[in-house]
Each structure stands twice: as C-alpha cells, then as structure tokens.
Design a protein that fits this description.
- InterPro entries: CbtA_put.
- By secondary structure, the chain is mostly helical.
- The chain is built from seven helices and no strands.
C-alpha cells in the first residue's frame, strides 16, 4: 500500500468524522421533521389521558421537559460524529486487511465497494427486518427484545459479508471463471439474506391505529437515508484520501518529477 497503518487509520478517523457530521445534517433536515410529527401524536395522547410520551424526560410534576428538544438534537449530532469516527476506525482497519481482496479500480473504487458492503450488511439488512419506528410507535416493554433481534440480524449480515467473499476465493482457487463466480456469489447472497429474513422473528411492535402509515414510512425512509448518507460519505471521503495519499507518495513524486514542465 505504501502507507503506514497509522496513516490509514488517521484517514479513517477523518472520513468517519465527516461521515458522522453528514449524518447529523441529514438527521436535522430529514429525520427531525418526521420525529416532531410523531411527538405531536404523543402529546395528543397525553392531553387525552393516554400513555405518557415515551422517551421524553419530564420534570417532576411539571409540563416542561428536563431536556429541550433542541438540546437533544445537538446531543444527537455530537453522538453521530463520535459514532462516525468509531465506524471510520473500523472501516480503516478492515480496508487495510482486505485491500488486496476488494474489487474496484484503485483505492477509491475499493473504498466505495467496502462502504457499499458495510451499508448493506450493517444498515440495510437490519432495517429491512427490524425497521426503525417513530416515537409514537413501540412498547417500552419490548425494547430488550427489539434490541436483541436487531443485534442478531446485524451479526448475521456481517457473517454474510464474510462468507460470500470466502466462497468467491475458494471458487477462484478451483479455477472457476469470473462470470460463474459472480453468479454463484449473487445466488449465495440471495439465499443467505432470504434465510435471515425468513427465519429471524420480526419486530414485536404493532403500529397503533392513531399513527398514520405515511408517518411510519417517512420515518423509516428518513432513518435509512441518514445511514446511507453516512456510509456514502465514509466510502467516498476515505477513498479520495487514499487516492490522494497514493498520488503524493513516492510513485506520484517520481511521476511528477519526470513530467515535462510547461513553457
């Protein structure tokens, strides 16, 4: 690669911070408006003597939240940046170990491919099986079960991301042509993902009748858009940083030195 592991790791952290910041912007612009629509439903329930608004910290005997919604949004943005940095570290480590095995033209292409795999395994598959729900949906008593199911699907998604490349390498060692390998890889992904979707139990929560279906779907799509923005920014930024590092390395310097100086 021509770069030290520490150099790759620093680029992963920088790309992760930018990815987390991008996700925070998407949360503010896309997720937050839907979130507030859901809070209105919870407030209506409270006004009519229904269940207390879940997830809101209320003062003792008062009507004002201990933590304002603005403070919660700012805290969520900071958390998003921290999580992005952590994901960037993991991304850089995986990239450094798997670089020669990743398809794609150059480090930029490999980085985008790895980000696509990460999004599909860590974000998309769990979102399909255990989708995100707005605050007005969900029973606090099922939080533990939902979290467990989400973690199981996430781990199975990572397992699929590891098994399929191992299968591809084994087929390559046996001399299987590339077109046949790709077809078998796709078939393996379809079968394994299908098994996860069929065999793992779904979310235990039911959508209450007072929550519009469009609100639920808007929230799920917005949440998925936030994750997609994070992975896209991570893959593109890390790839650009790696390509720039390669261009400015010894080979790039030699190429610049041998290039004719314009008159």
């Amino acid at each position: 690669m021509g770069l030290s592991f520490g150099s790759v790791l620093r680029r992963g952290v920088l790309a992760g911070v930018l990815a987390g910041a991008t996700a925070a912007v998407v949360i503010w612009l896309v997720v937050e408006p839907v979130f507030r629509r859901a809070l209105v439903i919870e407030d209506m329930r409270t006004m009519h003597g229904g269940q207390a608004a879940s997830g809101r910290l209320l003062a003792h005997g008062g009507d004002e939240p201990l933590v304002s919604r603005t403070a919660q949004v700012v805290g969520g943005a900071v958390t998003s940046v921290i999580v992005g940095a952590a994901v960037g570290v993991i991304f850089a480590v995986v990239f450094a170990r798997m670089r020669e095995r990743l398809p794609g033209r150059g480090d930029f292409g490999r980085s985008v491919v790895l980000a696509t795999i990460g999004f599909a395994a860590v974000s998309l598959l769990p979102a399909l099986k255990i989708p995100s729900n707005p605050p007005a949906v969900g029973d606090p008593a099922t939080v533990g079960r939902r979290t467990m199911l989400y973690a199981v699907v996430l781990l199975l998604g990572v397992a699929v991301a590891l098994v399929v490349p191992a299968l591809d390498r084994r087929l390559a060692r046996r001399g299987t042509v590339a077109s046949s390998r790709w077809a078998l890889d796709i078939a393996a992904v379809v079968v394994l993902v299908g098994l996860v979707l069929v065999l793992v139990p779904g979310t235990p929560d039911q959508v209450p009748p007072d929550v519009p279906a469009d609100l639920v779907w808007d929230f799920r799509l917005a949440s998925l858009a936030q994750l997609a923005a994070m992975w896209l920014t991570l893959g593109v930024t890390f790839g650009l940083l790696m390509e720039r590092a390669g261009a400015s390395g010894p080979a790039g310097e030699r190429a610049s030195a041998s290039a004719p100086v314009p008159a």
